[in-house]
Amino acid sequence: MAYLSPLRPILANVKLAVEERNYFTTPKHRNFVTKFKTFNAPMNVSIAHAKGSKPARLAVHAENSQGPMDVSLDLLYTGTFDLRTKSASAKVQESIVADSAISLPPSSSIPHMDSDGGHGYDDDKHELHFVYTAKDRARGWIGDSRRPEQLDRHTINRVELTNSLSPIRLHWARLRPSSPTSIRR
């Protein structure tokens, strides 16, 4: 799926639905590859899973010039993020949601990256980690404590946001924790 819109704002609500069955191994391909691009206009994109969906394997790439970018990910996202801008701010913001506000797949809590890049479920392994932060760049991952380099780079989820002269904000939803949370830098 690709949205190209020069000089026009992009407002998109993307719902992901995955119903695949894994018999012996986790599939090695992404379910979704999404690209958004505009120039001199705001971009507001929300990516969330449909009710009952399994966590999707996805790649998101968004580019803008001179227009602010806001991208939101739901709490089923695990993977890397890389936000880059020139002469503006790049921020990752965490939003806490209540259990009742969301619908998770049956018998699960929060996803994490498995050693093969797939998804398992464990709420202790879903944290925000930064590799690099500066005013104009933020890079890191959402998942367990293993660095993305330890996982299969072809299957790990990724979000890449690039902008010039305007701010970027990446919003990530997280369940209200039962114990204190930590953000690792």
What would your notes on this structure say?
This protein is mainly β and 185 residues long. It has one domain. The chain contains no helices and 14 strands. It has a 7-stranded mixed β-sheet with strand order 1-3-5-13-7-12-11, with no helix packed on it. Strand 9 and strand 10 form a beta hairpin. About 11% of the residues have low confidence.
Concise description?
This protein has strands spanning 2-6, 10-16, 32-39, 43-49, 58-63, 69-73, 79-84, 90-97, 111-113, 119-121, 127-134, 137-143, 158-162, 168-175. It has 185 residues and is mostly beta strands.
Mind sketching the topology for me?
Blueprint: E1 2-6, E2 10-16, E3 32-39, E4 43-49, E5 58-63, E6 69-73, E7 79-84, E8 90-97, E9 111-113, E10 119-121, E11 127-134, E12 137-143, E13 158-162, E14 168-175
Parallel strand pairs: 1-3, 2-4, 3-5, 4-6, 5-13, 6-14, 7-13, 8-14
Antiparallel strand pairs: 7-12, 9-10, 11-12
> In the residues, how many domains can be counted?
1
User: Percent of residues in helical segments?
Assistant: under 10%
Sheet having the most strands: 7 strands, mixed
Spans of at least 5 consecutive residues with low confidence? 104-123
Q: Which class of secondary structure composition applies to the elements?
A: mainly beta
